[in-house]
Amino acid sequence: MLLAIDCGNTNTVFSIWDGERFLATWRTSTEHQRTADQYYVWLSTLMAFQKIEAEITDVIVSSTVPRVVFNLRVLADRYFNTRAMVVGKPECALPVDVRVDLGTNVGPDRLVNTVAGYDLYGGDLIVVDFGTATTFDVVAQDGAYEGGVIAPGVNLSLEALHQAAAALPHVDITKPQRVVGTNTVACMQSGVFWGYVGLVREICARIKAERDRPMRVISTGGLAPLFQQSEDLFDDWREDLTMHGLTVIHAYNLGRSQST
């Protein structure tokens, strides 16, 4: 079975894929000092708790935090007797082209989302990922990654507002009942929520105008369901978009190795 690992700046997600479905998905905070042994103790405990007796034979990793990759590779080698496939490394091929400026490094999570989006929805997509950063990725008609937009993440914006203004508290993001708040928390929540609704709508509209053709907008990431509540921002949302992309990339590389 496949262990798919998506390591972001804030959280790391582990999913077990049996070839047809995800048996389980777990999330932990991203800490670059966490060792392979610690990962294994945490993971094996959760597997035992959920009575999952899967034999991990393959591991694939997507990481926006380079320092954690070493220990994840040690985890795969020491405890699962396999070499981890790492998205972005030369030995991990992608089933789509990457059309960006020469020398540009594209975040592996954005490439994985592109692969997943094209596999599930076809081309002419805008993939909006609500992570530590809010990213917009353009998927061409033939599935190629053609660039995108990076904006500050929702929680990052709230944290910056709290830290920079002494009188403003830390608040959780939620959809406010009214636009005009009558207390500080409601004012902040309205500003962030409706501000990001406007940001998403405007950026997507400008991408569509620049491309001059219809494009579907797909959302993913932790806060995607919250913004899915607003007015027709997205055509669909997928909680497991990145993990699905990892399974597609793994299957593509497995097919290539078997054909050579």
UniProtKB/TrEMBL annotation:
<feature type="binding site">
    <location>
        <position position="184"/>
    </location>
    <ligand>
        <name>substrate</name>
    </ligand>
</feature>
<feature type="binding site">
    <location>
        <position position="132"/>
    </location>
    <ligand>
        <name>ATP</name>
    </ligand>
</feature>
<dbReference type="Pfam" id="PF03309">
    <property type="entry name" value="Pan_kinase"/>
</dbReference>
<dbReference type="GO" id="GO:0005737">
    <property type="term" value="C:cytoplasm"/>
</dbReference>
<dbReference type="GO" id="GO:0046872">
    <property type="term" value="F:metal ion binding"/>
</dbReference>
<dbReference type="GO" id="GO:0004594">
    <property type="term" value="F:pantothenate kinase activity"/>
</dbReference>
<protein>
    <recommendedName>
        <fullName>Type III pantothenate kinase</fullName>
        <ecNumber>2.7.1.33</ecNumber>
    </recommendedName>
</protein>
<keyword id="KW-0808">Transferase</keyword>
<dbReference type="InterPro" id="IPR043129">
    <property type="entry name" value="ATPase_NBD"/>
</dbReference>
<keyword id="KW-0067">ATP-binding</keyword>
<comment type="similarity">
    <text>Belongs to the type III pantothenate kinase family.</text>
</comment>
<keyword id="KW-0418">Kinase</keyword>
<comment type="pathway">
    <text>Cofactor biosynthesis; coenzyme A biosynthesis; CoA from (R)-pantothenate: step 1/5.</text>
</comment>
<dbReference type="GO" id="GO:0005524">
    <property type="term" value="F:ATP binding"/>
</dbReference>
<keyword id="KW-0173">Coenzyme A biosynthesis</keyword>
<comment type="function">
    <text>Catalyzes the phosphorylation of pantothenate (Pan), the first step in CoA biosynthesis.</text>
</comment>
<keyword id="KW-0547">Nucleotide-binding</keyword>
<dbReference type="GO" id="GO:0015937">
    <property type="term" value="P:coenzyme A biosynthetic process"/>
</dbReference>
<feature type="binding site">
    <location>
        <position position="129"/>
    </location>
    <ligand>
        <name>K(+)</name>
    </ligand>
</feature>
<keyword id="KW-0963">Cytoplasm</keyword>
<keyword id="KW-0630">Potassium</keyword>
<feature type="binding site">
    <location>
        <begin position="107"/>
        <end position="110"/>
    </location>
    <ligand>
        <name>substrate</name>
    </ligand>
</feature>
<dbReference type="InterPro" id="IPR004619">
    <property type="entry name" value="Type_III_PanK"/>
</dbReference>
<feature type="active site" description="Proton acceptor">
    <location>
        <position position="109"/>
    </location>
</feature>
<keyword id="KW-0479">Metal-binding</keyword>
<feature type="binding site">
    <location>
        <begin position="6"/>
        <end position="13"/>
    </location>
    <ligand>
        <name>ATP</name>
    </ligand>
</feature>
<comment type="subunit">
    <text>Homodimer.</text>
</comment>
